[in-house]
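Sample entry (216 residues):
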Amino acid sequence: MNNISVSAMIESFKELFPKEASIAVSDERQFIYYKPSRQVDLKIKPGDKINENTVTFEALTGKKKTSKHMNAQVFGTPYFGTSVPTIDADGHIGCVTAILPSKQQRFLSTFLTLLMENHWLPVPYREIMYLEARNRKTWVQSERGMGTHKYSLSELELYLPDDGFLRCHRSYIVNVNYIEEIQPDSHSTFLLIMKDGSKIPVSQTYASLFRKILSF
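Predicted structure, serialized as tokens:
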């Protein structure tokens, strides 16, 4: 994949990344694309080798999504990175890494603090059913009720544990532990019936990955 096609791909999916994130794309050995943000810039250049002390290296070698706070050892700037490996039909592996300011390690907890009417309530991840982007707000449905969170779905997606939470639509992230059943909705999409009775769509964009992760 050349720089032009990678750039076009990132531009197409820019809504999936927080606005303050720098984006790096690599193959197995080197970075092939980099787009810095105003908030954090690691000065990566296409052709730079992947250092073993980076979150990108860990994701490539482990072949799984990896999120980690990294110190300034490699790039001279601390950062929080989330890397997702990609494997093409020929078995070639690459990686997309979202790079955020290190202060965003504040998300590294086991709960989300929600605004519920006139008070705030810390809700453990395990009690969160799903998150929805609606009317320019992030709504979070939990066992303790529904509240809002100040950050967007794209920002929260980077920090929610990936062993339970899945993006299924541009407007939804679900906790798979609260899925009651999965119904076919069209040729390539699905409808999730949640344990509270809510119905959440799985869009065509996410359907293939959704099926792969849930193995059906």
